[in-house]
Amino acid sequence: MLNRFSLATLGLIFSLAASQAAQPVVIAHRGASGYLPEHTLEAKALAHAMGADFLEQDLVLTKDDVPIVMHDIQLETISDVATKFPDRKRADGHYYALDFSLAEIKLLQAHERVNLKTGQAVYPGRFPLGKSSFQIPTLEEELQLIAGLNKSRGRNVGIYPEMKQPAWHRKQGHDLSKIVLPILRRYGYATKKDECWVQCFEWDEVKRIRAELGWEGRLLLLLGPTSRNPDGSDSSRWFTAEGLREAAKYADGVGPALNSIVSGKSKADRQVTDFVKNAHAAGLAVHPYTLRADDLPKIVDSMDDALSLLFTEAKIDGLFSDFPDLAVQWRDKNASR
Ligand code: CA
Question: H or E segment at 246?
Fold first, then answer.
């Protein structure tokens, strides 16, 4: 007869088996950004239609404390701000979203990301620069779009909001996480059962989101592409089994760059690192970034090769991609891993 202990043990074994058998999730990185300007509602609608499991929202604040969906804290690489508001740059030459009201930001046209030095698109094969008409959406506009599409398409596509540079925001007198979390809860994202992952590169903020701001939903610590985070802080501690156990005290998952998962300079010498194994041992899900069909890492020779390597060999739990359609198609075709 099974006693209470062995029942609990069995339950644990079953849930571990279930989580390991679960298919990896596909996260549309800035929407279907391989096909439409990043973080526009159009890019999110397309990703929804392509079957992505999660749609990503990078979040920054406006002057009037409205969370908007864009990747940088500055506006000039993805909008015509320099043309519409030439006098509004700071001494460092940048146009900060935080210096503009939402009404002003709504006057801007959003476009494909440009290289400011050349004036050319960063990814020239993508949606043509300056064509059609796009806006920078608010978080709430996007949550309403996703809820609407989930209803009309009978789906439950999740959200994946990222707090962008929360320490910088706070230094400027604006508290990004404190404003965003209540909005998420109001739209039904509050617990780990809800289809939502909150992500952030800043460990102090991850701890704060959990411990001080009381976030009970899923939380992911992003890790810089090498041992450096975007804010300049050292992230090398997270690439050890011990560091990952520390991360697991607050986070449910980690988001490293692809080269933390597979190392090497070419297909011939590529090698799956210990990272996923160590993260899984610490109870963390692994969702690396970012797979782009038009900018593949040198260690793979095709999108299929990359997907097979990441999903089957490295056994990741989710993937950020600008091309969610290709990742979903590959995953569904190769259902058992
Ligand atoms: Ca992001």
Answer: helix 241-247
**Catalytic residue (one of 39, 71, 169, 287):** 71
Would you call 33 helix, strand, or coil by DSSP? coil
For ligand 1, the distance from its centroid to the CA atom of residue 282, given in whole angstroms, is 24
pLDDT single digits (tens) 276-303: 999 999 999 999 999 999 999 999 999 9
Specify whether 111 is catalytic. no
Catalytic residue flag (residue 280): no
Instruction: Give φ, ψ of 180 to 5 degrees.
Output: -75, -45
Task: Using a cut of 0.85, tell me whether the model's pTM lies above it.
Answer: yes
Residue 82's nearest CA partner among 98, 93, 91 is 93
The Cα 14–Cα 2 span in angstroms is 15
**Number of CB atoms found within 10 A of residue 84's CB:** 15
CA atoms within 13 A on the CB side of 244: 20
Beta carbons of 236 and 265 less than 8 angstroms apart: no
Q: Report in angstroms the alpha-carbon separations of 130 from 113, 124, 269, 306.
A: 10, 12, 41, 32
| Residue 213 near residue 206 (C-beta atoms within 8 A) | no
